[in-house]
Amino acid sequence: PTTWKKYLFPPHEVLLSVSRADGTLVFEPIDSQSPRYAFLGIRPCELAAISIQDKVFIGPAVTDPHYEAARSAMFTVAVNCAVAGGTCFCTSMGTGPRAETGYDLVLTEVISAHTHEFVIESGTPAGESVVEMLDGTPATKADVDTVNSIVTDTANHMGRSMQVEDIYDVLIASLTSDHWDEVATRCLSCTNCTLVCPTCFCSTMDDISDLKGTATRQRRWDSCFTMDFTNLHQHSVRSTTATQYRQWITHKLAYWQDQFDEIGCVGCGRCITWCPAGIDITEEVRKLRTASKVVAV
Questions:
Q1: By C-alpha distance, which of 279, 251, 56 is closest to 168?
Q2: Lowest mean pLDDT segment, chosen from 34-38, 149-153, 192-196, 219-223
Q3: pLDDT at 294 over 80
Q4: What is the 3-state secondary structure (H, E, C) of 136-186?
Q5: How far is the C-alpha of 187 from the C-alpha of 191, rounded, in Å?
Q6: In sequence order, what DSSP letters do the residues of 48-79 get, joined into one string?
Q7: Which among 49, 80, 107, 125 is placed 20 to 30 Å from 96, CA to CA?
Q8: Angle at 232 between CA 227 and CA 233, to 5 degrees
């Protein structure tokens, strides 16, 4: 359930402090210095998720200094997937099972009757410098062929699939569908899907003060499934489970394309795995597609 997102975009983070000095309020931003992280064993879908969040937090208009500081200092050791999970559909989203970009090193585990090895590829000068320090032998064509065979086999055994070519049109055509009410009879609005998702970025601010006259502004994760998230003038814009679920899936798969020129789902399957009601995003899209009049050509 835990994604690498929590290191780059922490669930709770203090952004600034306010103190009183000689009767004057002093506002001080919190230093955006971050530990240097090495992400070991990161999967291709997670690399894709980080790339998606880069557009959110290091966009052309606004840059989040806390995210940027953590992002610029990270070192990634990725792992190509040799086995697909039952809820994986990264192949449909073009995000796996092979890591294509975004890594310093990527490993592929090769197990046979007589050997247990890792084939390592470098993706950056930093990764290359690490490879040069390792005791190993240069990969052969047979090693490369083995890696290709492993990831191809994984791609052919995905647990789920999602047709995405015309998904924007399908969802826009389904905004008034009765299916949202059907989903609402099962959805608990528990926020699990948004909390385990590696790309969701909804947050809210809390101002916390004490009796000493000091205060902090803190950012914490929020969700489009909570009533308070869209509370405007003491009225929630999306006050029903049906509208909340519709917002989540249409933003993730359709409106995200308007904002960031790509789909906001990487096919990791976490929202399926950790939904206590067993709601499957791939199945919901399939039902909406069947009910809509949009036909893929």
A1: 251
A2: 34-38
A3: no
A4: CCCCCHHHHHHHHHHHHHHHCCCCCCCCCCCHHHHHHCCCCCCHHHHHHCC
A5: 10
A6: HHHHHHHHHHB-SS-B-HHHHHHHHT-EEEEE
A7: 125
A8: 120
